[in-house]
Write a structure and sequence with these properties.
alpha+beta; eight-stranded mixed β-sheet; seven-stranded mixed β-sheet; about 20% strand; about 30% helix
C-alpha cells in the first residue's frame, strides 16, 4: 500500500482503531515517493523454512518484471491500487540496493513478497535523517497459498534482527507502512509480525481512511515470539546443588491451536547459542544447602537469601554474555527458575526483579505458584518440556517414557502427537510424576569416599561394589515411596542431606561400606523409577505396551546405572528393551536442555501460552504460570485472546 503521511499528519491528534473522530492530515508535497538514492544495503543470506515455504531476501539481480507482474496479478484489490510506473521504478531499485525485497517460495515458485525502500517523509518524525526510515511499498501473497502464515512470516522477516531491514541497513531505525483501514488481513499480518498501529487518519488524497503502522528498532518491541525468532536466556540451579546453569537460545515462532490460542498446536523449535554451568564454590554450596534445610531461626535470612541468589543468577548471566560476546540487546527475555528451597509448597529463591535490574533484561520467573493455586503440585516441570519436545510423532502407536535425573528424578509418560480428526489420539494426555531420588545421595556418598570427586565417573565405583538387599528394602519403605495416588512431586525436604546421614549411619551399623552403599543407592534410583512407571504408567506403559525409554541427565554417562535402569525396566514393565535412548537420538543437545526448559517456561509465559500440564501436576486446569519483571528492554506485554 503506497500512501505516505507527512509530518503534519503524524503530529496531529492520533486515532487508533475505530474511533469516530477523523482528524484531517496535511501531506507534504513531494514526499509521496521521495526515497533515498543511496545504496548501502547488504544481503543477509538468512533463510527461513516454515510449513514447506522458504523465505529469503531476494538477490539484487532478481527479475523486477517478475515482481511487478506477480504484484499486479495478486495485489490489485479494492483496498490496494497499484500505479504501474511508480511501482516499476520501485522494483527496479532492487538492482541498486535502494529497494529490499523478502520473498516466499514454494519449491522455486514465488508465492509472496514484501518490499521496502529507505527514505521518504517519515524521517521527519524520527529526526534522524532521510536514511533513518524504510517504508514498505508492496506486500502480496498468492491466494492459492494463503493459510500458511506466509504474510505473517514475511512481515516478521522484514524486521527480524538477523534477516530484516536493520540487518540490511544499519542506519535504518524505523520501518513504516500504511494500509486501508478496512484491510483487516494485511493489518493483522503486520501486527502479528511485530508492527504496531500509530494512527488512523482521513486520507483525502485517496478518499479513504488509512492506518499507519511502524516497527522501531529500539522500541523494545523485538519480538514477542508469535511470528519472529525470539532470543531467550534460561537460568536455573538444580536439586544436585552443584552450581548455576545458564543457556542462551533462539526460539522459532510458536504455532497456536486454532481452538485455544493458549495451547500449542505442535512442538517448538529452538537453537542453542551458548550454554555453561558455573559451579558453586564450597562456601556457596554450603550456603544454599543451609537454606534448603529450612532450619534457620531468623526469617530475615531467607529474605536475604532470595535477594542474594537473584544477584548470583544475574552475575552468571552477565558473565556468559561477556564471555561469548553476545550482544545484550539481542536478548528479549530471561526465563529464571532459580533454586528450589522448599517443595511443599514450592518456593524458589532468586528474585526476578534483582535479575532484571542487574542484567537490564526483562525476566519471567516464579512459575510454579500459578499451578499450585489451581490445585496442582507445581511439579514436575519437566512434563511441560517433555509434552512439547519429546512426544513421538503423530501416527506412532507406542508411548514414550521420558526420564530426567538430576538431584531428584522425574518421569513423563508421553503419548504421540494427535492425528488430526482422530478422536482417540486427540483425547490422550501426558502423565507423569517425580519417582524420588536422583543422583543426590549417590554424589554425597562419592564425596564421602573421596572428597576430591564430585560424582561416580562412568559408574566405575558402583560397579565394583555390591547391592545390600536388606538396606535396599529398608530404603524403599521410606514414606515417599508409599504414596499411592497421583500427583506426586518431590522437593528438597523429601530427601534432605540429613536423611542421607541417617541412612549412611544405618549402613555403618550393619557393617556396610560406603562403596557398597554407593552401589545400593545406584540400584535404589534405578529401581524406584521403574517401579513408579509400573505403578502409575497405565495401560500404554505396562505389560509390554512400550519399550521406548529415554534418559536425560549427566547420569547418561554412567554406564553401570544405565545397565541397571534397563534391567529394572525390563523386569517391572515385562518387556524387552533394546537400548535406552538419549536426547542425542532426537537431535537435542543434552547439556543445555534443562536451561532451554526454563527459557521455554519464560517464553510461553511471555506469550500467554499454557506452561504446565495439569494431567501431570494434578491441577484442576491448565495455567500460564509466572511473573514478569521489566528490564531496560521492556516495552509491553499483550496477552493474546485472553478472556476477560
Amino acid at each position: 500500500d503506497l500512501g505516505k503521511v507527512g509530518l503534519a499528519g503524524l503530529m496531529s491528534k492520533r486515532r487508533m482503531g475505530n474511533s469516530p473522530s477523523k482528524p484531517s492530515i496535511v501531506v507534504l508535497s513531494g514526499v509521496d515517493r521521495a526515497f533515498s538514492t543511496s545504496a548501502k544495503s547488504i544481503n543477509t543470506g538468512v533463510t527461513w523454512a516454515r510449513n514447506g515455504i522458504t523465505y529469503r531476501q531476494l538477490e539484487s539481480d532478481f527479475d523486477p518484471n517478475l515482481l511487478f507482474e506477480f504484484n499486479k496479478k495478486h495485489g490489485s484489490t479494492p483496498h490496494n491500487f497499484i500505479p504501474d510506473e511508480p511501482v516499476k521504478k520501485h522494483f527496479s531499485k532492487l538492482a541498486t540496493g535502494e529497494t529490499t525485497v523478502w520473498g516466499a517460495f514454494s519449491d522455486d515458485e514465488l508465492v509472496g513478497f514484501i518490499s521496502g525502500e529507505t527514505g521518504g517523509g517519515y524521517w521527519l518524525e524520527t529526526g534522524d535523517g532521510s536514511d533513518s526510515t524504510c517504508f514498505i511499498n508492496e506486500f502480496v501473497v498468492s491466494p492459492e497459498h494463503r493459510g500458511k502464515r506466509i504474510g505473517v512470516n514475511l512481515t516478521s522477516m522484514s524486521v527480524d534482527p538477523k534477516a530484516g531491514i536493520f540487518a540490511v541497513d544499519g542506519d535504518v531505525k524505523e520501518m513504516y507502512t500504511t494500509v486501508h483501514k478496512d484491510n483487516v488481513t494485511s493489518r493483522t499480518a503486520f501486527i502479528k509480525g511485530g508492527y504496531r498501529e500509530v494512527m488512523t487518519y482521513s486520507d483525502t488524497m485517496r478518499e479513504r481512511d488509512t492506518t499507519v503502522l511502524k516497527f522501531s528498532k529500539n522500541s523494545g518491541s523485538f519480538p514477542r515470539g508469535n511470528s519472529q525468532t525470539m532470543r531467550v536466556i534460561g537460568v536455573q540451579s538444580g536439586n544436585a546443588v552443584d552450581g548455576i546453569d545458564v543457556g542462551i537460545f533462539d526460539f522459532d515462532p510458536l504455532v497456536r491451536s486454532k481452538t485455544d490460542s493458549r495451547v500449542l498446536a505442535q512442538s517448538l523449535n529452538y537453537t542453542t547459542i551458548a550454554n555453561k554451568t558455573f559451579p558453586f564454590t564450597p562456601e556457596e554450596r554450603k550456603y544454599v544447602l543451609g537454606l534448603r534445610a529450612m532450619r534457620l531461626e531468623d526469617g530475615n535470612e531467607y529474605a536475604e537469601g532470595n535477594y542474594k541468589f537473584g544477584d548470583w543468577c544475574a552475575q552468571r548471566v552477565n558473565d556468559l554474555l561477556d564471555e561469548t560476546g553476545i550482544d545484550r540487546s539481542t536478548v528479549a527475555l530471561i526465563g529464571s527458575h532459580g533454586q528450589t528451597v522448599s517443595g511443599h509448597p514450592h518456593w524458589e529463591f532468586g528474585d526476578i526483579s534483582v535479575i532484571a535490574q542487574k542484567t537490564g533484561i526483562t525476566v519471567a520467573g516464579d512459575f510454579r505458584p500459578a499451578d499450585v493455586a489451581a490445585g496442582g503440585n507445581g511439579t514436575p516441570c519437566t512434563c511441560t518440556y517433555d509434552s512439547i519436545m519429546l512426544r513421538p510423532n503423530a501416527g506412532e502407536k507406542k508411548w514414550r517414557i521420558a526420564i530426567n535425573i538430576g538431584g531428584t528424578s522425574s518421569v513423563t509418560f508421553c503419548p504421540p502427537w494427535p492425528t488430526k480428526g482422530d478422536a482417540e489420539s486427540e483425547a490422550m494426555v501426558p502423565g507423569g510424576l517425580d519417582p524420588g531420588l536422583g543422583v543426590f545421595f549417590m554424589d554425597l556418598t562419592v564425596r564421602a569416599i573421596d572428597p576430591t570427586l564430585e560424582y561416580d565417573d562412568d559408574g566405575k565405583m558402583a560397579r565394583s561394589g555390591n547391592v545390600n538387599e536388606e538396606l535396599l528394602e529398608e530404603f524403599l519403605k521410606n514414606k515417599y515411596y508409599q504414596k499411592s495416588e497421583l500427583p506426586i512431586g518431590v522437593g528438597p525436604d523429601d530427601f534432605p542431606e540429613t536423611l542421607w546421614e541417617e541412612w549412611r549411619a544405618l549402613a555403618k551399623s550393619k557393617g556396610v561400606s560406603d562403596l557398597d552403599l554407593l552401589t545400593t543407592f545406584t540400584e535404589l534410583t534405578a529401581k524406584q523409577i521403574a517401579m513408579a512407571c509400573k505403578r502409575f504408567g497405565g495401560e500404554h506403559i505396562v505389560n509390554g505396551a512400550t519399550d521406548d525409554v529415554l534418559l536425560r541427565g549427566g547420569v547418561c554417562n554412567n554406564s553401570y546405572f544405565v545397565e541397571r535402569l534397563k534391567a529394572n525396566f525390563e523386569e517391572q514393565l515385562n518387556t524387552k528393551i533394546e537400548g535406552i535412548k538419549t536426547l542425542e537420538n532426537l537431535n537435542i543437545d543434552e547439556d543445555s536442555w534443562e536451561n532451554a526448559m526454563y527459557a521455554m517456561f519464560g517464553y510461553l509465559c511471555y506469550n500467554n501460552v499454557y506452561n504446565f500440564v495439569p494431567s501431570c501436576t494434578g491441577a484442576s486446569r491448565p495455567v500460564v504460570g509466572g511473573r514478569i519483571a521489566p528490564g531496560k528492554n521492556f516495552h509491553s506485554v499483550r496477552l493474546e485472546n485472553t478472556p476477560m
